[in-house]
Specification:
Layout (H helix, E strand, L loop, with lengths): L26 H22 L7 H26 L3 H4 L4 H25 L5 H28 L11 E2 L2 E2 L15
Antiparallel strand pairs: 1-2
Helix pairs in contact: 1-2, 1-5, 2-4, 4-5
């Protein structure tokens, strides 16, 4: 009996709902985003377990930021790692990813510092703050990795083109006229 399919037959990638790696998300960034989701979830859950507070405003701000980081990063991860991003109608996913990740980094930095500075000093609050800073570290690593691999997404100066295998010659204006009399 002979086999119908040879060992070189590859699965059809369009049948898969999981699209990593892709042009929007490679494996390293996928792992970073998954770490962001998990660390911000743990920070949120630990903060929710705090039963008393001296000044509750920093606690509530930390709660808001960690919950937002968890929910929206999970949504972004699902959208970028599946074909759902094609159905949303957004064409600038790289810019959206960069702005969101940088924005959440800033909010996590502020909320973690404020919550660390004004809490009752319980072990639960300290651990929540540690996970807030760990989530911040994951977001900062993601921003750094993004810039390192893709560059700054809002760069306006275009890269020089290539002509016949070499760099394109940029036309400059003549400073002297050819037919001008001295």
């Amino acid at each position: 009996m002979t086999e119908v399919y040879s060992t070189t037959t590859a699965p059809n990638p369009k049948n898969s709902c999981f699209l990593v790696p892709s042009k929007l998300l490679d494996w390293n960034q996928f792992v970073l985003k998954a770490a962001e989701v998990l660390l911000s979830l743990v920070a949120f859950v630990l903060e929710e377990l705090v039963s008393s507070c001296i000044s509750c405003t920093p606690l509530y701000f930390f709660e808001f930021v960690s919950c937002t980081a968890f929910l929206f990063t999970a949504l972004l991860l699902i959208l970028l790692s599946t074909s759902l991003h094609q159905k949303v109608g957004i064409s600038c996913w790289s810019k959206l990813d960069f702005v969101y990740t940088a924005g959440i980094s800033i909010l996590l930095l502020i909320s973690s510092i404020v919550f660390a500075a004004s809490n009752t000093g319980s072990n639960l609050e300290k651990v929540a703050v540690v996970f807030g800073f760990l989530a911040l570290l994951a977001f900062l690593l993601d921003v750094g990795y993004f810039v390192k691999t893709r560059g700054f997404p809002f760069r306006t100066d275009p890269a020089p083109g290539v002509s016949n295998g070499g760099p394109a010659v940029v036309a400059t204006h003549e400073t002297e006229r050819l037919n001008e009399q001295p």
